[in-house]
Amino acid sequence: MNDSAKAQARNRARQYLLSLQAEDGHFEGQLSSSTYPSCAYALLQLAQARTPDLTLLEWVLDQQHVGGHWRLDASELTDPEATCFARLVLRQTAADYRLRNEQPPTEIEHVLDRIPPTESHLWLIRLFEAYCGQRNWNSLLPSASVRFLMGMAQRLMPLLPKALLNRAKPPMHLAPPPDLFRTPTFQKLFIAEQHT
After folding, report:
1. In this predicted model, what pLDDT tens digit does every residue of 163-195 receive, in sequence order?
2. Strand, coil or helix: what is 89?
3. DSSP letter at 103?
4. Residue 86 and residue 57: Cα distance in Å, rounded?
5. pLDDT of residue 116
6. Which of 84, 101, 114, 146 could join 142 via S-S bond, C-beta 3.0 to 4.6 A?
7. Helix crossing, 54-62 with 35-47: angle to 10°?
């Protein structure tokens, strides 16, 4: 592609994006094709005492796989954590309707009935479950022995070879110790969380 064709493509893309902008400057559209950010947005709306947008709920409902699970993204691979997150959002949405003495949409109840028993192992999903009253807060905390081991691992990290450190990953099912966020380890291991 020559420079003139690239410039024309950029100009068309810019014009198209500007055509989607509302008068007050904001853009609206589908949040994501991934279950996690879509469910997080719905949960945020619920935390703000707002019922999730109908189009967002419809998207979540439509993403349920034939077997009752949710896919993580546009692929056909189902994900147990995405399933737990979608179930949480739909349960909370149904509870939100009931708090207002309204009947939840029947589609929500039907979809919830089709979800097979699935247990979350990802700490962040478990945290959301505890926030919504669907899990005991104490179940999020690692045992004293695990906290001791995590502290030891944190102190040993500066002594480990760099090649091993590059392969090290924090446990996804445990809450990271708060002091971890003030260390160089955080800079190396939690880059995605910092950007998020």
Report:
1. 766 666 666 666 666 665 666 665 665 555 444
2. helix
3. P
4. 10
5. 93
6. 146
7. 140
Q: How far is CA 165 from the centre of its chain?
A: 26
Instruction: Using DSSP, state whether 71 is helix, strand or coil.
Output: strand
Check: pTM over 0.85? Answer yes or no. no
Give how far Cα 91 sits from Cα of 29, 30, 131, 139, Å.
Answer: 25, 22, 13, 20
Q: State the burial class of residue 92 (Cβ atoms within 10 Å of its Cβ: 0-12, 13-18, 19+).
A: buried
Dump pLDDT digits (tens) for 19-37: 877 788 776 655 456 888 8
Please name every residue paired with 78 in a beta bridge, in sequence order, or none if there are none. 71
Instruction: Provide DSSP, 31-55.
Output: --SSHHHHHHHHHHHHHTT-PPPHH
